[in-house]
Design goal:
The protein has 2 helices and 2 strands; from the N terminus they run βααβ.
Length: about 60
């Protein structure tokens, strides 16, 4: 199943958030650093456009 890609609505803020992540973490890019950068971007007032790529919770299955 192909998914679209989310894009930041304010590329300048996203660049600043990534720069902060590069300064904060020894390894960039990494999943942890990118998650931190996305959270920082949202804290700065940034928003996203495009597909919703958040992980969906699975329904609990009943075990017999």
């Amino acid at each position: 199943m192909a998914r679209g890609k989310s894009k930041p609505n304010d590329p300048a803020k996203w660049s600043r958030a990534k720069a902060k992540a590069r300064a904060k973490f020894k390894v960039y890019p990494s999943a942890y650093a990118n998650a931190w950068a996305a959270k920082e971007y949202k804290r700065m007032g940034g928003t996203w456009s495009g597909a919703d790529n958040r992980v969906k919770k699975r329904a609990k299955s009943k075990k017999a």
